[in-house]
Amino acid sequence: MLHNVRIYCPVEFTTDSFSAANTPISLFTAAKYCQIKLTTFWGNTINTVSLSLFRFPSLPARLWVLGQMGAARLSFWRMPDVGFWKLCGSGTGEGFTPRPNTAVWAILATWPDAETARRNLTTAPVYRRWTRHASESWTILLQPTSARGDWAGVQPFTPSDAPDTPGPIVALTRATMRVSTFLRFWRRVPDISAVIGQDPNVLFKIGIGEVPLLHQVTFSIWPDAASMAHFARGDGPHGRAIAAVRREGWFKEELYARFRLLDEWGTWGGVRPLAAKDAA
Predict the structure, then answer these.
(1) Which of 36, 150, 195, 205 has the smallest set of CB atoms within 10 Å of its CB?
(2) For 237-258, what is the mean pLDDT?
(3) 160 with 134, same domain?
(4) Measured distance CA(64)–CA(249) in Å, rounded
(5) Rg (CA), the chain
(6) Same domain for 38 and 55
């Protein structure tokens, strides 16, 4: 059962260093009280994760979605069913590069169950607006099977107790780089990107992130655990990079999660990516 809890708390006032005036921390209101919405899930509900990718090819559409980096946040704050959510940009090439791709953007969100996710993904105004402005979009629904680490200080995914089932495995890694080590990280990325792009087993891959250079989310879909493990831990660019991460402590924060695929709809690159791989 889903409960929305609204808590009213005092707004702390601070001195503006420029005007020396007392200024509320909230940028949206000067009221003495702010409203914080906490969404809690009671019972043994396993959350459902959605990743929606959107392509905006024209300059007006790209400028529009840049504005959505602020406007869409307000929409998600008002959305009663959503849990953890992030608005992300993407990289060029295979997506695993520090150069931003201003045409491709993503929304990652968690929901209490698949039915709630489908309803919001197809009817919520923010998703309908993004779909209307995009030339194409692709959404996948996922159920977490394992997760360790934090994202922005929280653990966003609740793994299922259900046994593993045959089918594609989805992997997500998210890291916050240390400023002192991010150049070493990005020097290794071209080699990793080339290898994953040439891997015949990978069904889909993209690199997304909240903040260029310092945050990186890698998202990939594999036919089975063995092919994913071979790429991740083998004696190749990715395996050597992971060894360096552990040895030199590149990351301030890390998250590793695996999922099973529940559903997918839309197109990417003019095709349904998973159906296209099956046909091949």
Answers:
(1) 36
(2) 64
(3) yes
(4) 38
(5) 20
(6) no
Residues 25, 48 share a domain: no
171: left (phi over 0), alpha (psi -120 to 50) or beta: beta
**Interhelix angle for 59-78 vs 125-133, to 10°?**
170
HSE, CB side, 13 Å, CA atoms: give it for residue 218: 21
Contact 37, 4 (CB under 8 A): yes
DSSP state of 95: S
Residue scoring higher pLDDT (77 or 242): 77
DSSP result, 119-138: HHHHHSHHHHHHHHHSSEEE
CATH number (domain holding residue 199): 3.30.70.100
CA atoms of 54 and 65, how far apart (whole Å): 10
Could you give the 3-state DSSP secondary structure of residue 220?
strand
Q: Please name the amino acid found at residue 78.
A: R
Say how far residue 150 (Cα) sits from the centre of its chain. 13
Do 50 and 34 fall into the same domain?
Answer: no
Q: CB within 8 A of 93, min separation 6: which ones?
A: 99, 193, 197
- Asked whether the beta carbons of 108 and 88 are under 8 A apart, the reply is yes
33/114 same-domain check: no
**Together in a domain, 91 and 179:** yes
Q: Is it the case that residue 200 has pLDDT exceeding 90?
A: no
- Answer yes or no: pTM beyond 0.90: no
- Expressed as residue numbers, the domain containing 214 is 44-279
* The pLDDT value given to residue 183: 60
- Take residue 71 and report the two structure tokens written for it: 């406007």
Per-residue pLDDT tens for 131-140? 999 999 999 9
Whether residues 21 and 152 share a domain: the answer is: no
Residue range 17-47, pLDDT digits in tens: 333 333 333 333 333 333 333 444 433 456 8
Answer yes or no: do 31 and 170 share one domain.
Answer: no
Looking at the structure of the chain, the number of domains it has is 2
pLDDT confidence of residue 187: 59
